[in-house]
Amino acid sequence: MAKWGEGDPRWIVEERPDATNVNNWHCMLLNLSKNLRVEKNASTWSKDKLKELLVGLKVKDGTGECEIKELSKIEGEASANNRKAKLIFFYEWEISGKWSGFIDETETTYKGEFEIPNLSEENDPDEIEIRVTCDNTSDEAYKVKEIMRRTGTPIIQAQIAKYIKDLREEYSQGIVLPTKTLGGTTKITDNNIGTENIAKKEMNKIIHKKADSKDTGTKIRTKTLKSKEEFKCRASDLYRALTDPGMVSAFTGATAIVEAEKGGKFSLNGGNISGEFIELIPNKKLVKKWRVKSWPDEHYSTVTIELTEKEDCTDLHIQQVGIPDADYDRTVQGWQNHFWERIKQAFGFGVRLF
Predict the structure, then answer these.
(1) Are 312 and 331 in contact (CB under 8 A)?
(2) What is the Cα–Cα distance from 4 to 2, expressed in whole angstroms?
(3) In what order do the strands lie in the sheet with 285-292?
(4) CA angle 126, 253, 284 (to 5 degrees)
(5) Helices (H), the chain
(6) How many whole angstroms separate alpha carbon 251 and alpha carbon 294?
(7) How far is the CA of 309 from the CAs of 239, 255, 340, in angstroms?
(8) Which residues pair with 308 in a beta bridge?
(9) Distance CA 267, CA 263 (A)
(10) What are the DSSP calls for 149-160, one per residue?
(11) Taking a C-beta distance cutoff of 8 angstroms, is the pair 324, 295 a contact?
């Protein structure tokens, strides 16, 4: 059979100079492709991956530590489908397991169980419910349980987000139908693999340079962001939330790389945000080079975060210099929605009004 691009008129879907649709094959082939469906069962792989990500997972908050000891139930299924050249992922799981933990002061071990009743594609990772119970009803046991529930929930959600990401990467291979335009593969888009947060899509948009612009020396109009946020915690706790890899992974919902030292690198949200630490004063100040993947090559902003501890809260002052003009509003919303609010929610640093 002739290959794409060879121009052989025997190839029934090749364009012909006389525009002839030979034996109506174009319509027949189109109908065939519409009905074609490729499916892979991902259930066994998913069970192994969930065990790998959750069993042995440790949760720490500065007062104690918990660890997931085993998964006692993983019931459900997962699959990947190619329908009409679009990838569709289906997964639905009920998970339960056992955990143990202790308070640093006494190191008395307490045990309990946890349940994830709604792991499915209908919920984003940060919407997935984690139910935690403890075998003991003492005050100290309650404190340990709260470590597992409050601090552990976003950490477990981050591991679930990694499971979803790995599922899509692992099972997008081998079920993608060939197309002429892309040389044998169907491009995987956000629509193929599920709905993604609109703000994240906007942050990932490519900024195209003008045809006559150069790779170096291109002038970019920028703005400076200045704002203040209040957190109900000590400055040391907030500083750790911004520099500890586990805590950053917990509130961002994805594995984070954070080398909290001068010259150390950081990478957040799957590499969409990256940069380098310039200055660190523990519990007081952070200065770092910061860029979003969609920004023009080699363009960095400078982020300065200062913490001021008060009697009942800690004030965070942020200044970001060098934000591309077109991304200013998205950057303001990004800090508020994906950093400050998530930190408050994940670690209880917010203000509750009754």
Answers:
(1) no
(2) 7
(3) 222-231, 314-324, 301-309, 285-292, 273-281, 265-268, 257-258
(4) 120
(5) 25-35, 43-54, 139-146, 152-171, 198-203, 235-243, 245-252, 328-335, 341-347
(6) 22
(7) 11, 29, 16
(8) 315
(9) 13
(10) IIIHHHHHHHHH
(11) yes
Strands 265-268 and 222-231: unpaired
Nearest one of 84, 52, 80, 77 to 170, comparing CA atoms: 80
- Record the tokens describing residue 289, joined without a space: 């080079």
Strand-pair partners of 288:
277, 303
Could you tell me if 254 and 161 are in contact, meaning their C-beta atoms sit under 8 angstroms apart? yes
- Per-residue pLDDT tens digits of the chain, which is 354 residues long: 444 444 444 444 444 445 455 555 445 444 444 444 567 888 899 999 999 999 999 999 888 999 999 999 999 898 887 765 567 888 889 999 999 999 988 878 999 999 998 898 878 888 888 999 999 989 999 999 999 999 999 999 999 999 999 988 887 765 544 444 444 444 444 444 343 443 444 334 434 443 333 344 456 789 999 999 999 999 999 999 999 999 999 998 888 999 999 999 999 988 899 999 999 999 999 999 999 998 988 899 999 999 999 999 999 999 999 999 989 999 999 999 999 999 998 888 875 433
Q: CA-to-CA distance for 59 and 263, rounded, in angstroms? A: 28
Cα distance between residue 160 and residue 40, in whole Å: 20
Q: Whole-angstrom Cα distance, residue 263 to residue 289?
A: 10
Q: 245 near 258, Cβ under 8 Å?
A: yes
Tokens 């009754």 found at = 354
Distance, CA of 126 to CA of 251 (rounded, Å): 9
Widest pairwise Cα distance in the chain: 86
pTM of the model: 0.44
Evaluated on CA atoms 68, 126, 201, 241, the torsion sign reads negative
Instruction: Please give the structure tokens belonging to residue 61.
Output: 């908050």
Number of H helices and E strands in the chain, helices first, is: 9, 13
CA angle 67, 73, 74 (to 5 degrees): 100
Please state the length of the chain. 354
266/278 Cα distance (integer angstroms): 11
